Amino acid sequence: MTSSQTSKKQELPATAWAVLGLLSFPGERTGYELKKWADSSLRFFYWSPAISQIYAELRRLEELGYAASTRSGPQEARAKRRYAITAAGRAALAGWASDTAEAGPPVLKHGLLLRIWLGHLADPVLLRAMVGEHLERTRGELAAVREAMAQAQEVPQWAFPALALRWSERQHLAELELGEALLADLAELAAAGTPAPAGVRQGGGDAPTPG
């Protein structure tokens, strides 16, 4: 590997490693197939990159020698390019997966909670409706997670993805519990007349939390 390739390896984003990870399982796959797999696995505990991002990362991985592609022959009505991980790519991925220093803390960006935080500017009825919609959406996601779990459990090579999906099932169950508790909190606040947060004075004041 050249010094330029080594530098690029060190700068690889997590998305590149995720795409390479999708290639680390047996078989060759098209970019479209990788996207479908990401949608039915990665998105439940990390995120699913756009198809354009997947192809961009595949090009980068090929440049580094971590992935190789072949084009389908004339027997297929529509030519397709299939990708596979290389020995160098598997070694690099194994090194990255074993480096716990790179894992970092989980990042939570909860759009609903941002709106709850601004609840003093919102209609309480609309807030409760948003929480209800969030619960319905989470139930749908939970069903999708369980469907993916059932598929993964049928393939011995997917034992570890199945563990990640099992964690995601528990996370969605916890999200449902938190959502129900949030509805109860909103109802309690409404019954109490929605008092102004402690420490906040009309016309401004310090933040309601230390800092």
Automatic annotation (TrEMBL):
Family annotation (SUPFAM superfamilies): Winged helix' DNA-binding domain
Organism domain of life: Bacteria
Family matches, as InterPro entries: Tscrpt_reg_PadR_N, WH-like_DNA-bd_sf, WH_DNA-bd_sf
Domain (Transcription regulator PadR N-terminal) ranges: 19-94
UniProt-listed PANTHER family: TRANSCRIPTIONAL REGULATOR YQJI (PTHR43252), TRANSCRIPTIONAL REGULATORY PROTEIN (PTHR43252:SF4)
Protein name stated in the entry: PadR family transcriptional regulator
Native species: Streptomyces roseus
